[in-house]
C-alpha cells in the first residue's frame, strides 16, 4: 500500500469526522477512523493525527465532505464552528490535488458504488429498472438533500441547503408544531424537526400537547418507540414529516432513478418508517398521489458512503 498512489478522504459531520485512505476510487476500509469533533479545534489537527497514526504515507489527493454550504471552495459547517478550505487540506496532508464538497454531494457521488446489501428498500417504485435523476436526502445531526444527474460529461451533484427551508405544514397539528418550534429561532425550518435535535423538539411538542412532563434525548426516544406515549408519538410525527418533505423534494427534482435516505438518524429510523406512516405521508399529494409511486425510496445503511463518494469524485476529477 505504501507504493500505491493514495488519497485522503474525510466526512465532517456535526458530531464526528470520519477519515480514511483511498487508492484511486477504492476506499480502504481498514484505514477508517472516527474522531469526535468536540475534541479538536479544527479539521487540520484531525488530519495530521490520522496521518501520523497511519505512518505518514505520501498523499497525492485529498477530498473532504462537509456538513454545510461550500462557496468558492470554502466550507462553513452549519452545526460546528469550523471552516475548511483547500489551503488547509494542502498544509495538513501535503496533497497536490484537493477538493471540498458538501456532504450530500459526496453521498451523491457514492451512488452506484454502494453494496446492494447496504441498501434497505422502503418503497420499490414501478416494476421496471429505475433510470433518470436520483436524489440523496441526508437526515442526521442536520438535514439536507441533493439531486444527482449523470450527464455525457460526468456526474453532476448539485449542492443545496434545503434543510433550512420551512418545514412542511399539512394539518392543524403541523401548524401548532411550527409555532411551537419557531419560538427557538423565530422560524420553523425542516432541520428543526427532521434531525437528531429535531426529534427531541418533536418529543417536547408531544409532551406539551398531552401535558406530560418528560424529557428524553434522541437516543432515549428511539429506545422507547414501542411504548405508547410521547416518545412513540414523536417518532410518528417524525416519520410522517419525513415522508411529506421527501415527497415535496421528489416533486421538485423528479428523481425517477430513486431516492436515497442517508445519515445516522435515517439509518436508526429505517425499521420504523413504514409502520409509523412514512409511505402514506410521502404519497399524500392530492391528484398527484398516484404519481408518487414512480419514485423508489431506499435507506443507505453504509455509514461510510460519503467517504466512498469523496474517493470516487477525486479519482474522476469531478468537483461539485
TrEMBL record:
One of its GO terms (cellular component) is cytosol. It comes from the Bacteria. GO terms for molecular function: ATP binding; D-glucose binding; glucokinase activity. GO terms for biological process: glycolytic process. Gene3D superfamilies: 3.30.420.40, 3.40.367.20. Keywords: Kinase, Transferase. Belongs to the bacterial glucokinase family. This is Glucokinase. It comes from Cereibacter ovatus.
